[in-house]
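Quick one: structure tokens for this chain, please?
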Amino acid sequence: MSISINSLTFTGRVGSVFSVKKFNGGAMLEFTVAVRPNFKNKNGEYDTQWFYCKVWDKPECSYINMLSSQLVKGSAVVCTGALDFDPVTGGPKLFTGNDGVWKAVFSVNCKDVVVQSPRPGNSANASNAKNGSTSENTKGEQFSDIDDIPW
């Protein structure tokens, strides 16, 4: 058994409806996960941490198909994978949010995603999530849901 030094396991809530990007050699499922700490900052607010999750799959596998039928915005998930560091900063990916403020998000190449439970009252979102959006491009790193905390 080998142990990976770059290994991360976290639990949070799905913060965006997933998208599937198809490539010649396979496909990639993308979604965001919000993780809220158990404590408040000095302003009395929670500092939510966002993870941009990517799950890679080969065409002959059905892992992405199985996940896409279960992922719903607000669902609790447990993700295990490796941090994908920004080559420029060596840390999280930095970007400017819709409000003009610099933000950071960690990118994770997930090897395992377990959907624990759907968010109560999200039956409307469940039917929308099953449709999922698909895209052929390889860019598309938009984080429009960063301020839309799912709790």
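Confidence is low (pLDDT under 50) at residues 122-151.
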